[in-house]
Amino acid sequence: MREYFDKELTQLNDNLIEMGGLVEQAIKNTMKMIVDGEDLLDTAREHESRINEAEKAIQNQCLRLLLHQAPVAHDLRYVSAALKMITDLERIGDQAIDIAEMSVYIKDKKQVFNLTHISEMADNASKMVTEAIDAFVKSDIELAKKVSRQDDIVDELFNRSKNETVELIHKNKELGSEALDIVMIAKYLERIADHAVNVAEWVAFSITGSCDLSD
Amino acid sequence: MDKFTIENMNLYYGKFHALKDVNIRMKKNRITAFIGPSGCGKSTLLKSLNRMNDLVEGCKITGDIRLDNEDIYGDMDVNILRKRVGMVFQKANPFPMSIYDNIAFGPRTHGIKNKCELDQIVEESLRDAAIWDELKDRLKKSALGLSGGQQQRLCIARALAVKPEVLLMDEATSALDPISTGKIEELCLKLKNDYTIVMVTHNMQQALRISDETAFFLLGEMVECNSTDAIFSNPQDKRTEEYITGRFG
User: Looking at the partner chain, which of A2, A71, A73 has a beta carbon nearest the beta carbon of B234?
Assistant: First the structure.
């Protein structure tokens, strides 16, 4: 019946998957910089730029669909959710580049810090982003709820990382500046996980009409 | 507060079962929109609200239709019912007489002969229909010379002249341009302070813009009735979703 509109919605889906993929790559890239010490700042900047472009393109596509197709019911919720989600994905992109730029300052001192928790946080946050996008694409409310539950793990890791870093500052005051960078990196990762939960909430809105992810 | 209450209503045109076990309430001073594909029974239900279907041969109605809790198919005088429940049709149908006489026709039929009183009713009705300023200097001219949009607003004014409580609108803007449609939609929003409006529309954006409640009909069945926002953002029945998103059939 609405063949053209359905094609456009499929295209929107594909574009969101692509943007989600870029965001995942951006997070993984920053972790290679921090944990493995690789010099990938240019790649990180390119990721950020592509994420910003993807946001603009999807935003225009959503506005065009709202204007031309006047969607209602699930179609309206789907397009509105997409429009909101890309703001969160774009913020994740910003936080990834912030982490990448900070990693340069701690590069020489990273042996001193225990980055296990940071690495775990990055793995979890990246997985949450992937699953939130998957939940949207597959209209899977259970997967969206799982993303929300995982946020507690990242919060816990953030607290551990913060406490360990504070202890380290007590022991070695000369590392204060780098320690602050480590805490900020952990905070950015914690925020990335929050944005993934926001995406999951928009998935719930798209499916049920409510952002509620409680069981 | 409910203005109309319909319970277990069935309507037959001869052997054809046109409305099936309809239950719906229409609130006072609200705009209720009936939507659904052609032949679903929405206009049939609208016409039942002021017994226009009495004129259709072989039409049989069972169940309850109550106006202010009074059975309209019971002892109620049908002329009184139609004074209380006015109707505006898809095609504007001004009488071939002056603008003034079009408006005064109803009140005169109901026994008002005093010129001053009629003048006042004509002015009030045309003002209520937001067309007084356009027509005040040409009241003695033929109504047939008006544009389509003006004719339709004249018909609304004519319906208002007998001081109804409910206004039924059967696709009242479907033949009008967007400007005239916009004027009538604005008018409906103003009129609902004093009247209860029930409208049939094929224009779902119109239902969205002005109605408070929407009922979706399909094959003689009332599938779903809820606040317009709920129907268009999160319908509960798959058939409603398919219809309003254009994936029906």
Answer: A73
Cα B99 to Cα B161: distance, rounded to the nearest angstrom: 12
Token pair recorded at residue B224: 């779903």
Q: Is B41 exposed, middle or buried (0-12, 13-18, 19+ CB in 10 A)?
A: buried
The string of pLDDT tens digits covering residues B196-225 is: 999 999 999 999 999 999 999 999 999 999
**CA-derived radius of gyration, chain A:** 19
Which of the four pLDDT bands, split at 50, 70 and 90, describes residue A214? confident
Give A78's contacts in chain B (Cβ within 8 Å).
none
Return the bridge partners of B170, or none: B200
| Cross-chain residue pair A1–B208, CB shorter than 8 Å | no
Q: Which residue does chain B place closest to A209, by CA atoms?
A: B234
Inspect the interface and report whether the beta carbons of A73 and B235 lie closer than 8 Å.
yes
Q: Does the beta-carbon distance from A2 to B204 stay under 8 Å?
A: no
C-alpha count within 13 angstroms, C-beta hemisphere, residue B116 = 0
- 10 Å Cβ neighbour count for A87? 14
Hey, is the C-beta of B244 within 8 angstroms of any chain A C-beta? yes
Among the listed residues A137, A133, A8, A7, the one whose alpha carbon sits nearest the alpha carbon of residue A67:
A8
Nearest to A75 among B208, B240, B245 (CB): B245
ipTM of the complex: 0.75
Q: What is the pLDDT of residues A118-175, one digit of tens each?
A: 989 999 999 999 999 999 989 999 999 999 999 999 999 999 999 999 888 888 888 7
Distance from CA of A68 to the nearest CA of B (A): 13
CB-based contact B232 A1, cutoff 8 Å = no
> CB–CB of B233 and A2 under 8 A?
no
| Interface check B247 vs A, CB under 8 A | yes
Q: Per-residue pLDDT tens for B122-155?
A: 999 999 898 999 999 999 999 999 999 999 999 9
pLDDT above 60 (res B249): no
